[in-house]
Amino acid sequence: ESPCIYNLFIFWFIGKDKIEEVVNDFKGAGVALGMFNTDASIIDFAHSSFKFALSRELPLYLSTKNTILKKYDGRFKDIFQEIYDTQYKPLYEAKGIWYEHRLIDDMVAYAMKSEGGFVWACKNYDGDVQSDSIAQGYGSLGLMTSVLICPDGKTVESEAAHGTVTRHYRMHQQGKETSTNPIASIFAWTRGLLHRAKLDNNQKLENFANKLEEVCIETMEAGFMTKDLAICIKGMNGVQRSDYLNTFEFLDKLAENLKLKLNLSCK
């Protein structure tokens, strides 16, 4: 809030003199930001990304702004490239897929004009913004899955990325009708169940989770949907009540279709 000099000091534990850099000589009020990462964290991120893309048999792209953040983002670029060249390149080539680094602005433009079919490894802020952009581009945040993966391949956390939908819950508490899209919550469970099935080698559980996901997609494609998706089709002002199901009607429709699919698979 007053004039000051913002300095960065680096103290080495052994062998080197300290480094002091002037970040900015503030003549008045302002703000500053400090940011760090560790090689261990970046390496874990790289392995998680490479393994996930390999499991999906899709090419992997890493996006950074290493032309501006030459040291910081350059570290991500260098570590990813080294790990790919030494550990994953033959595996990727055997699947007919690849890894490539791209600048974040170039990657955003590519994602907008592409038809998908790739895995996009983003730094934290970039991923937070672009994941919502892509989810909305497909219709709704209610269709978005979110799975956190550990490098060991054994531990995952699956969640609905859209949050708690507080506004709809307050309407429900008041006895008002809601049309809340449950797909992301359902897929949070199915992705968790699929991983459990993988760890336990449980084919029945895997089949159930896959069929539930198929039912969700098939039901929406057949024209049964919640209000958020109806708005995507007809616009906010063009939607009539007959164009969508409320929360419970949609869940009942999914349950009905799931029973049919499970009965057919048993015959």
TrEMBL record:
Cofactor: Mg(2+); Mn(2+)
CC terms in the record's Gene Ontology section: cytosol; mitochondrion; peroxisome
SUPFAM superfamilies listed in its UniProt record: Isocitrate/Isopropylmalate dehydrogenase-like
EC number: 1.1.1.42
Record keywords: Glyoxylate bypass, Magnesium, Manganese, Metal-binding, NADP, Oxidoreductase, Tricarboxylic acid cycle
Enzyme class name: oxidoreductase
Any one GO molecular function term: NAD binding
A Pfam family that the UniProt record links to this protein: Iso_dh
GO BP annotations, alphabetical order: glyoxylate cycle; isocitrate metabolic process; NADP+ metabolic process; tricarboxylic acid cycle
Isopropylmalate dehydrogenase-like domain segment(s): 1-254
Classification via InterPro entries: IsoCit/isopropylmalate_DH_CS, Isocitrate_DH_NADP, IsoPropMal-DH-like_dom
Family: Belongs to the isocitrate and isopropylmalate dehydrogenases family.
Name of protein: isocitrate dehydrogenase (NADP(+))
Species name: Schizaphis graminum (Green bug aphid)
Lineage of source species: Eukaryota, Metazoa, Ecdysozoa, Arthropoda, Hexapoda
Name of the gene this protein is made from: Idh1_0
